[in-house]
Write a structure and sequence with these properties.
The chain is α/β, with parallel strands linked by helices and about 475 residues long. It folds into three domains: about 190 residues, FAD/NAD(P)-binding domain; about 110 residues, FAD/NAD(P)-binding domain, CATH 3.50.50; about 100 residues, FAD/NAD-linked reductase, C-terminal dimerisation domain (Enolase-like, domain 1, 2-Layer Sandwich), CATH 3.30.390. Helix content is about 30%, strand content about 25%.
């Protein structure tokens, strides 16, 4: 949909209009702020240079997970005989995959447009710049707000001397590929790199992941990282861990990546997946007194910047760069502006999911972090192997549930690896958030046969009465 058509569907601001809440950025944090503030009776405008929904809807969470589902279907077709189903896998039609992905995004985008329209949120199209503690300028036109919310999101990072272009891609370009490469190097073993490596491996690509740290998904519990590495190697994904990028060249034959160890890797494409940085440059923030730390906006416990009534949400605020975190922060800010005194967001209870094959899901602290905080003798852990779970056996997945608790105290971490475990983390979030004891959870009956039952079995084990525990 072109920009003019979008404008016709939205409430458009007249130049010089003043609002109760003026939001810069229409991603997860920005539109959540707008929708909740409008719901609370405040007048709201969102300044957006591209499309509502931001990175998550258009270049991140949704299109990536659509590709991951297509990858899962490809794997199911390959493995069909294992289940007694006669099917054939004839390859990947990227035009068809992209049409499916774009259809998912389009449907959600239309739904978001409808929500914004129903709440009478005003849209200002164009690149905005903060020009005062209560003002944003767009294409030379000034708009004011009693409260201003910065929600400009993030963009892919690169490394010094590593230029994007040609055969060197970020996730933005990778989502728009119109073909399946024969081989690919993924630089970065975090969430984005692991997810693309998983997608491409399922599509038949020869994939190598390069990670400077010793493990994949290094922010996760060490046992989860090691399980991921075993699973990826079993899938024939090559891993180069603990080795840093040094240089890259490209020609008609492909990309040629040199590592600090002296090793040289060759492939059709190089995906640079070394994280995302805050999109705050050139927005006039520092000129108005907003404090930046390595590009991130410094805020207090109420997400206020300390400059007038200027707030910040989402990926530009230091911490987890997750769409659901930005969404929650947007609701918090809107309610704070409306005087509702909302409860501050506890970052330790925000769930994290990597949607690869296998999936990783976690909430709370890792075993290492718990031992650092509470002492080695004050921490207990248990791992429940999915080999003992009926539904996991049916699905053909391996992995485990790992629980971390303070000795004689509450559970402080839930960590899982295996197919579909992202769907289980909601219960883990409640357990950690409500500081539940293993004895509290072990008395609850979990449905059989479900993967959710694995959580119940893990808590039985941690409560001292394991029934199906596997070493």
């Amino acid at each position: 949909m072109d920009q003019h058509a979008r404008t016709e569907e939205m409430f458009v601001a007249e130049p010089g209009t003043s609002f109760d809440v003026l939001v810069l950025g229409g991603g997860s944090g920005g539109y959540a702020t707008a929708l909740r503030a409008a719901q609370l009776g405040l007048t709201v405008a969102v300044v957006e240079a591209d499309r509502l929904g931001g990175t998550c809807l258009h270049q991140g969470c949704i299109p990536t997970k659509a590709l991951l589902h297509a990858a899962e279907v490809a794997e199911s077709a390959r493995d069909s005989e294992r289940f007694g189903v006669r099917a054939t896998f004839d390859g990947i039609d990227m035009a068809g995959v992209n049409a499916y992905k774009d259809g998912v995004v389009s449907g959600l985008y239309k739904g978001l447009q409808g929500l914004v329209r129903s709440r009478k949120v005003t849209i200002v199209e164009g690149y905005g710049r903060l020009v005062g503690p209560d003002a944003i300028e767009v294409d030379g036109v000034r708009y004011t707000g009693t409260h201003v919310v910065l929600a400009t999101g993030s963009e892919p990072r690169t490394l010094p001397g590593l230029e994007i272009g040609g055969r060197v891609l970020t996730s933005d370009q990778a989502l728009r590929l119109d073909h399946v490469p024969g081989s690919a190097i993924v630089l970065g073993g975090g969430v984005i790199g692991v997810e693309f490596a998983s997608i491409w491996a399922s599509f038949g690509v020869d994939v190598t992941v390069v990670e400077a740290l010793p493990h994949l998904v290094p922010a996760e519990d060490a046992s989860v990282s090691k399980a991921m590495e075993r699973a990826f190697r079993k899938r024939k994904i090559s891993l180069s861990l603990g080795d840093r990028f040094s240089a890259v060249t490209q020609d008609d034959d492909g990309v040629h990546v040199t590592l600090e160890s002296g090793a040289t890797l060759h492939a059709d494409l190089l995906l640079v997946a070394v994280g995302r940085g805050p999109r705050t440059a050139g927005l006039g923030l520092e000129e108005q007194g907003v404090t930046l730390d390595r590009g991130f906006v410094t805020v207090d416990e109420n997400l206020r910047t300390g400059v007038g009534n200027v707030y910040a949400t989402g990926d530009i605020v230091p911490g987890l760069q997750l769409a659901h975190r930005g969404f929650a922060q947007g609701i918090f800010v809107a309610e704070h502006i409306a005087g509702l005194s909302p409860t501050s967001i506890d970052e330790t209870t925000i769930p994290r999911v990597t949607y690869s094959d296998p999936e990783v899901a976690s909430v709370g602290v890792t075993e290492e972090a718990a031992r650092t905080s509470f002492g080695d003798d004050a921490v207990e852990t248990v791992e429940y192997n999915l080999a003992g779970n009926g539904k996991s056996k049916i699905l053909g997945t391996t992995g485990f549930v790992k629980l971390v608790r303070r000795k004689d105290g509450p559970v402080v971490g839930v960590h899982m690896v295996g197919a579909r475990v992202g769907e289980l983390i909601g219960e883990g979030q409640l357990i950690v958030g409500w500081e539940a004891y293993p004895e509290d959870v072990s008395t609850h009956v979990h449905a059989h046969p479900t993967q959710n039952e694995a959580l119940g079995e893990a808590f039985l084990a941690l409560a001292g009465k394991p029934l199906h525990a596997h070493d």
